[in-house]
Design goal:
Strand content of chain A: under 5%
Strand order of the largest sheet of chain A: 1-2
Helix content of chain B: 55-70%
Oligomer: heterodimer
Helix content of chain A: over 70%
Shape of chain A: globular
Number of helices of chain B: 4
Number of domains of chain B: 1
Largest interface: A-B, 41 and 42 residues
Structural class of chain B: mainly alpha
């Protein structure tokens, strides 16, 4: 059962090993690359085990719950770990092709491993204070990475990133204190059990809203997203892909846990607020994307609008819509990360990522164009790509809820979701037309720079994975439904952690 | 006792937010230090009023319920260390921004009309 600790331990040991023992060299790259592969294999094993045999837990130090810290993995956590492992591996390999050993910052590799350690700890923990510590580990690594390679001008964008996240961390700490004062426990199962009996108590709702604000800042929900679209573009392409694909999605995961596990399920008023926040995030994010003129800026705003879809579906709060969120997460993280990587490759070829000065890429490399087109259409939600199934599930559930009481709100929200899809397609086509399709003799394509071949190969792998999700959607949707069932089955969760009462 | 603590936490949070919203780097920094302390105090106060309760050392003849709750004290130690680490990072970041951008004023830092030389291509 100690498999549960490995997703945290493996990146931690790799990071320490890479930081303390090895000098930056091809040997270090190979070893860390192998460790990345092992993390993917481990995560896939965990998905298989939790899907077939149910959730797993380990009580640290053998202290029984609710007194000790419990680590817990169900299908949802395992899926997120797997996505994280795949994305961090791909970003690492991409980074290897992008820059030779002597140019890369020596701290980048260890810091990415520490970032993954924090993310994985946040995914597996079943204790509120431990979650706070995991968030801090994750955020400290991310602060370091965002300033590591920023130049003198861009460094200022790290300041809002740091201060907004520091503010939300402090709110989180105060929230954990309130939770302990109210329930006398920090264990998720214990809190869930007691909160269930106190569903009418306004303090439970207040705690829920406080934690929603905290995790909403991390995930970038309207009106708490303003720090995100300017700070992500200062990252180098592979790191931006990792942040976009994984770091912000941890916020979504924790919101799922908050509403699925911690809080009573009867908070339909709060759920509706969440749905509206999601709807507004969607629309404002995509409008921001339409207004931007450089690839990383456009994609950073798209992170927001895609997060909006997930938050919208969390707000619907039915077993079907939670499964939709989980499937959307699987699809979107891969697609988002690979779009950032395609953008990075295009930047290497054109030596800029300002749309006005890009072009000719379709002639130079049709393969990259096809990869971009697959991922962009998937992001916009066109069949048969993976994004279509996720959007279809969300829209179906919205229409389904629309026929119930207070249905007009759900119709409006579903309409917003479809409208956002069209605008997403529009801004993706803007990138497509100006970078790939346009022929302009004055624009140079630096094909002689050999790096783009390896980079395109990595992105091609991501694209194949994304196509697999799209064409093998049945398997992934089944996985999502099992994850949703395990997340929402609170009685089983409490019994599994605390033992039979 | 708990009521006074609650008021103190509220005042600390209020002042901290007011300071963070100023534009001078030093004020922002002090705002975050206050904020960190406010959150730590909120955490610590969740152990309940300590008056009339003994230290959490198990001796014969003292009921466990008559002891102060040690867990928030342990948690707050962790939180102080983490807060200190992040705050020192903030100090260094602000210093680097001062060196690179020659300003200690956040409003000036993000002023769109400043020269964009060497700026990001937008």
């Amino acid at each position: 059962m100690n498999l549960v600790v490995l997703p945290v331990l493996l990146p931690a040991l790799t990071g320490l090993f890479a930081l303390l023992i090895l000098r930056p060299s091809p040997v270090r790259r190979t070893l860390v690359g192998i460790s990345g592969g092992l993390q993917v294999a481990l995560a896939c094993t965990l998905v298989g085990l939790t899907y077939t045999q149910g959730p797993m837990k380990v009580e640290l130090g053998d202290w029984p719950a609710p007194f000790g810290i419990v680590l817990y993995i169900d299908v949802l956590a395992a899926i997120m770990i797997a996505i994280g492992a795949v994305i961090s591996w791909a970003c690492m390999l991409y980074g290897f092709f992008e820059l030779p050993t002597r140019v890369t910052h020596p701290l980048r590799l260890p810091l990415v491993q520490f970032l993954m350690m924090g993310i994985n700890l946040a995914l597996v923990t079943a204790d509120l204070f431990n979650l706070f510590v995991a968030f801090e580990v994750m955020l400290l690594a991310s602060y370091a990475l965002i300033t590591l390679e920023a130049d003198d001008w861009n460094i200022k964008e790290a300041f809002p990133y740091l201060s907004v996240n520091l503010f939300s961390s402090m709110l989180f700490l105060a929230g954990a204190g309130f939770a302990y004062g109210m329930f006398g426990s920090l264990n998720f199962a214990d809190i869930a059990q007691q909160a269930e009996l106190m569903a009418d108590d306004p303090r439970v709702g207040a705690l829920g809203i406080l934690l929603l604000v905290v995790f909403g800042i991390k995930a970038g929900i309207f009106p708490l997203y303003f720090w995100l679209p300017n700070s992500y573009p200062i990252l180098p392409a592979p790191l931006a892909a990792l942040y976009a694909g994984m770091l912000t999605k941890v916020g979504v995961y924790v919101i799922l846990r908050l509403f699925g596990t911690l809080l009573p399920h009867e908070f339909s008023g709060l759920h509706l607020v969440v749905a509206w926040m999601g709807g507004l995030t969607m629309v404002l994010g995509v409008l921001g994307a339409v207004s931007r003129g450089f690839i990383r800026g456009i994609l950073s705003f798209h992170i927001l609008s895609q997060i909006g879809y997930m938050i919208l579906a969390i707000g619907f709060f039915t077993p079907f819509s939670i499964a939709a969120v989980i499937f959307y997460n699987i699809h979107n993280n891969i697609v988002k990360a690979s779009l950032f990587l395609v953008g990075g490759t295009a930047t290497v070829l054109n030596r800029t990522d300002t749309l006005a000065r890009m072009g000719n890429l379709w002639v130079a490399t049709p393969a990259l164009g096809i990869i971009f087109l697959c991922q962009a259409l998937s992001l916009a939600g066109l069949p048969p790509f993976s994004g279509f199934w996720g959007k279809l599930m969300i829209v179906l559930e919205g229409l389904n809820l629309g026929s119930g009481p207070g249905g007009w709100q759900f119709f409006v929200l579903t309409g917003l979701a479809l409208f956002t899809g069209i605008l997403t397609l529009f801004s993706m086509l803007k990138i497509w037309l100006t970078t790939f399709w346009v022929r302009d003799e004055s624009i140079e394509v630096h094909r002689e720079d050999r790096r783009w071949k390896g980079m395109t190969a990595v992105v091609g792998g991501m694209c194949l994975l994304s196509l697999t999700i799209g064409f093998g959607a049945q398997f992934f949707i089944k996985l999502s439904f099992e994850a949703s069932r395990q997340l929402l089955d609170k009685a089983a969760y409490i019994e599994f952690i605390l033992g039979p009462s | 006792m708990m009521f006074e603590t609650a008021i103190l936490v509220g005042i600390l949070f209020g002042f901290a937010v007011w300071l963070i919203l100023q534009s001078s780097f030093v004020k922002i920094l002090f705002g975050f230090i206050l904020l960190s302390n406010a959150a730590n105090l909120a955490m610590l106060s969740s152990s309940g009023s300590p008056s009339g309760r003994s230290a959490p050392v198990v001796l014969d003849g003292i009921a466990v319920t008559a002891m102060a709750d040690p867990l928030p004290q342990a948690l707050v130690l962790t939180a102080i260390v983490i807060g200190f680490g992040v705050l020192s990072y903030l100090v260094v970041l602000l210093y680097r921004i001062f060196l690179d951008q020659k300003t200690t004023n956040a409003a000036e830092l993000f002023d769109e009309s400043r020269s964009q030389e060497g700026g990001p291509e937008q």
